[in-house]
Prior knowledge:
Elements: H1 4-14, E1 19-20, H2 23-28, E2 43-45, H3 50-62, E3 67-70, E4 88-91, E5 98-102, E6 107-110, H4 116-125, H5 142-148, H6 155-158, E7 165-171, E8 177-181, H7 193-197, E9 206-213, E10 220-228, H8 231-243, E11 250-255, H9 256-266, E12 276-284, H10 286-302, E13 307-309, H11 314-325, H12 327-332, E14 337-340, H13 350-364, E15 367-373, E16 378-385, H14 390-409, H15 428-431, H16 434-447
Parallel strand pairs: 2-4, 3-4
Antiparallel strand pairs: 1-2, 5-6, 6-9, 7-8, 7-9, 10-12, 10-13, 11-12, 11-15, 14-16, 15-16
Amino acid sequence: MVSQAMVKDLEDLLGKENVFTSDADRQSYSFDSAVLPSVIPAIVLRPTTAEKLGECVKKLYDADIPMTVRGAGTNLSGGTIPDTEDSAVILTTALNRIIEINSNDLYAVVEPGVITAQFAAAVAKKGLFYPPDPGSQSVSTLGGNIAENAGGLRGLKYGVTKDYLMGIEFYDSTGALVKSGSRTVKCVTGYNLPGLMIQSEGTLGVISQAVMKLVPPPQATKALMAVFATMQDAGDAVAGIIAAHILPCTLEFLDNNTIVRVDDFTHAGLPRDAGAILLIEVDGHPAQVAEDAEAVEKVLKACKATAVHVPQTAEEKTKLWEARRQALPVLARSRPTTVLEDATVPRSQIPAMLKAINDIAAKYKVEVGTFGHAGDGNLHPTFLCDRRDKDEFKRVEDAVDEVFDVAIKLNGTLSGEHGIGTAKAKWMEKETSRGTIEYSRRLRKALDPKGLLNPTKMVDILK
Length: 463
């Protein structure tokens, strides 16, 4: 329980303006972007310095109060929903400084509350490039990106957040400061704790600072939009591009349902009668870009593309990519409930996964819009429904179960970038093993013996 004495103690530490106890404030941090029941925490805390963050964690630990760390709450698997009504939510949004951008050694030092898109823009002003670009980048924070190992449209060529984390500072469950990694390209001092913290979903520590790798920006880019009569033709083209050993910067897929709904909202001029489209971008040295674009176009035509459109202006190109980024918010406007998944398969299995998604939707008589990062095998089948209709929502749940079963049979994974949280925890053993679950639980208990750090997420430490 959070006593009045504890509230006063935390107000003295953080300032009254950073301790939220009203019903309205606490309710604002009772949910995230997952379709899961909300849980109103006992208290919400917003430390303004790393030192205060550590002291805050220690006070909660000493008082046996469970903690859920939260950035912007854009995660999609329940990871920032409080565990119980006796929990505390710790916000990292006030720790939002870009401490350093080092152009000579190609790294940046940041606090966890820095917004991803703002960081990328600040880096770009220095003539450098931070590639990870999750769909929520305009609001998501770097601490959350690390905790979820966020990906994005550029993951095919440039990788995801784990590929850019060089060093980290975090507080363990007791409030002790842990440092690992460095500003150097090579570092083998001790355990790879940055790697441990990646996709740990707030279960192993509370991030206070990170060192992120930067890279030079590409000299040139070229975008293409390929139109297909069927989803299967588009899927074959994705597999064909990868099989031809061409590595685009981005290779995105939208099915007809998504195309029509996005075009209704954005008026981007998308081909509304297409079965599917691929949005592709190649980048690098100008000569390489020209060569890759030509090779991609050959594969697209060989795979029955009915048209290949090349944007002629930067404005036209931006309009296309903005339309793609609107896929989820537009689909989410369509029905009261949106169940977004991220089943991911080896890229050669994209055609099979696309067919399975449509067959499953037809079998359970549910509506689905599918889009995603097809180039890295990461699809987002988005089921549109109304959870108040119990029969319809049960059919959606059964459809999602089957989608995951198919993904695993195709040597894929439950989650390419959204995480496990509580939403997918029940399927973990299907992909891994009972030994994996128990090993993970022992690891958590060793690092957090009281079971206070996001205790029920991913692998429930309280069981």
